[in-house]
């Protein structure tokens, strides 16, 4: 089967967003828990592969390694199947733009998915990153200390290294790229094609240091649990707010609205089907 062209991708995306509403709240919450956990796994492996690399020797290459490793998270979300708030920020509003959904439907879905993502990301941060010793504490040695130092660098940069405006804009840039990864995955009809579509945009946003609210639901709590100094929950909540609003703007304005205007504005919206459609993996983003 040949890959889809952008007008076909837009139709699949609109139907996918509409179908996300036709599930019970408990299924959405479980799916979102998995999505948060999968992104946390990607973040954890990204810390691991980039720890211990001295910038004096490696320059900016550690961020490239980190970005390449982090793509695991979105690959798991799209291929294994789960809900991720940053992807839903594009797909569900797109369904509303077609008249398939109400604003209330959008708000309800995004709120529930954000909650599930938070629970999943914090679960991995506490039980599988810190409690296992993969992320060490300040008194650790060896690889555990290296991962602790790398996590501290990342968390301190996100929590206090930028102004509010910079964090917001980093959120915009992040989800513009993440949603392009989800969007382009709709073009592919094979798993390998989806992985390739995901890889480059996700690697790019991580390498540039942009802010992904669900990834930060892992990085920042993990840093608090691991005893990173001068990091409080107030800093964490502020980052989530700024990054989350930026992610929403990046998804709705630069991806959903743009492609709705280009391909769906003058097209009649069909009623969402209950049977699987092509690009089903992107339905889970």
pLDDT average, as an integer? 92
Gyration radius over CA: 18 Å
CATH topology: Glycerol uptake facilitator protein
Structural category: mainly alpha
Tell me what the CATH architecture is: Up-down Bundle
**Pattern of helices and strands:** HHHHHHHHHHHH
Shape label: globular
Number of domains: 1
What is the CATH top level name? Mainly Alpha
- Give the biggest sheet: none
Give the topology.
Blueprint: H1 6-19, H2 25-50, H3 55-58, H4 61-81, H5 85-97, H6 103-130, H7 142-160, H8 164-185, H9 191-207, H10 213-225, H11 233-264, H12 280-283
Helix pairs in contact: 1-5, 1-11, 2-4, 2-6, 2-10, 4-9, 5-6, 5-8, 5-11, 6-10, 7-10, 8-9, 8-11, 10-11
Explain this structure to me?
- The protein is mainly α and 285 residues long.
- It has one domain (6-283): Up-down Bundle (Glycerol uptake facilitator protein).
- It has helices at 6-19, 25-50, 55-58, 61-81, 85-97, 103-130, 142-160, 164-185, 191-207, 213-225, 233-264, 280-283.
- Residues 272-284 have low confidence and may be disordered.
């Amino acid at each position: 089967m040949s890959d889809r062209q952008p007008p076909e991708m837009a139709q699949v995306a609109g139907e996918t967003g509409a179908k996300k509403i036709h599930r019970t709240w408990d299924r959405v919450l479980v799916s979102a828990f998995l999505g948060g956990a999968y992104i946390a796994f990607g973040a954890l492996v990204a810390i691991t592969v980039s720890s211990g690399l001295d910038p004096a020797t490696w320059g900016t290459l550690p961020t490239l390694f980190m970005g390449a490793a982090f793509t695991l998270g979105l690959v798991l979300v799209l291929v294994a199947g789960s809900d991720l708030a940053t992807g839903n920020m594009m797909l569900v509003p797109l369904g509303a733009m077609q008249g398939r959904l109400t604003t209330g439907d959008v708000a309800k879905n995004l709120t529930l998915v954000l909650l599930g993502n938070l629970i999943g990301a914090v679960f991995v941060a506490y039980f599988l990153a810190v409690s296992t010793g993969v992320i060490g504490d300040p008194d650790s040695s060896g690889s555990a200390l290296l991962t602790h130092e790398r996590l501290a660098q990342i968390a301190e940069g996100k929590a206090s290294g930028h102004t509010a405006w910079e964090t917001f804009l980093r959120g915009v840039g992040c989800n513009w790229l993440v949603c392009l990864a989800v969007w382009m995955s709709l073009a592919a009809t094979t798993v390998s094609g989806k992985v390739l579509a995901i890889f480059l945009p996700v690697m790019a946003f991580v390498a540039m240091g942009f802010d992904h609210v669900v990834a930060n639901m892992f990085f920042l709590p993990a840093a608090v649990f691991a005893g990173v100094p001068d990091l409080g929950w107030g800093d964490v909540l502020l980052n989530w707010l700024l990054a989350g609003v930026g992610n929403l703007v990046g998804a709705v304005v630069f991806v959903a609205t743009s492609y709705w205007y280009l391909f769906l504005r003058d097209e009649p919206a069909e009623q969402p089907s209950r049977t699987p459609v092509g690009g089903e993996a992107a339905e889970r983003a």
